[in-house]
Amino acid sequence: MDIRGSRLERYPSFQGERGKMPENQIRVMYEELTPREFKKRLKQAPIAYLPLGTLEWHGEHLPLGADGLQSQGFFCELAREVGGVVLPMLFLGPDLKIRIEGKEYHGMDYYGFDWNLGMGRPEILTGSAYLMDKRLFRGLIETILGLLGRQGFRIVVGHGHGPSITEFKRLTPELEKKCGLKLFSARREDESDGFGIQTDHAAANETSLMMALRPELVHLENLSLDLEEKPKAVSGKDPRTHSSPEKGRQAISIQVERMSKILRGALEGGEQQIPQS
């Protein structure tokens, strides 16, 4: 009796059109892969992509999970180009913590306001629930790297929330040595061209990326039509006048091409000959 044949007849979805699956639909997210699919992708390219997300205010127009959604979306496209597996997004990360007049403020609670410019006082921004002590963040990253190394990954790329990237890069030399992995981020030394990945806070770059990746989650109509009224706790070029899905798609395309060269070089053992900026 052909057990496999009878199973295919009973469960038609097993037959699938995987060989004909469009490139943009190939499954690359860790939690969606079967063990067989996971093993195949790991063998092809032992790269793990870690979205350094948050649950954080990103203006009135973007979702609270914008950091992770952008990095995850970018990583999915990069993984389909280079190979590898995209991890579930984190939602905790480091940032500024400051106490003023008995209240504790985190990140953009404080950075998003400028008293000198008459832009109000710090406030606890709606939905921001992500702050993690740097020591705990280091422990979390080290634990994740250890588990990934155990599964056979050789390279881990971390990107997302700005302060998380900064801490990830600061820890890189130590953790590379300790965990036996090569670590990368998608941050460049010079991000002034506006075509990097997550180079502002809820402004033109991040809004454009979200428009390209998840347009149904972008609500520019929530922002004032009065361009003299600066959006609250948004840092960078005004998303109302400087963002577009085309700019987001261009940034993704540029950075997928750049990071593909870096990661392929790393897999071949020549990562030090490939510039990261």
- Record field, number of beta strands: 6
Specify the oligomeric state. Answer: single chain
CATH architecture: 3-Layer(aba) Sandwich
Task: Tell me the name of the CATH class.
Answer: Alpha Beta
Tally of DSSP helical segments: 9
Strand content: 5-15%
The major β-sheet equals: 4 strands, parallel
- Per the CATH scheme, the topology name is Rossmann fold
Describe this structure in words.
- With 277 residues, the chain is of the alpha/beta class.
- It has one domain (26-93, 127-267): Creatininase (Rossmann fold).
- 40% of the residues lie in helices and 9% in strands.
- The strands form two sheets. The protein has a four-stranded parallel sheet with strand order 2-1-5-6, with helices on both faces.
- Helix 3 crosses helix 7 (204-213), helix 3 packs across helix 9 (245-267) and helix 7 (204-213) crosses helix 9.
- The longest helix has 23 residues, at 245-267.
- The protein is globular and about 55 Å long.
- 37% of the residues are buried.
- The model is unreliable at 13-17 and 272-277 (pLDDT under 50).
Summarize the structure.
By secondary structure, the protein is of the alpha/beta class. The protein is built from 9 helices and 6 strands; from the N terminus they run ααβαβββααβαβααα.
Helices, strands, pairings?
Layout lengths: L2 H8 L24 H10 L2 E6 L13 H17 L2 E2 L10 E4 L2 E4 L1 H4 L22 H18 L3 E6 L1 H18 L2 E3 L19 H10 L25 H4 L2 H23 L10
Parallel strand pairs: 1-2, 1-5, 5-6
Antiparallel strand pairs: 3-4
Helix pairs in contact: 3-7, 3-9, 5-6, 7-9
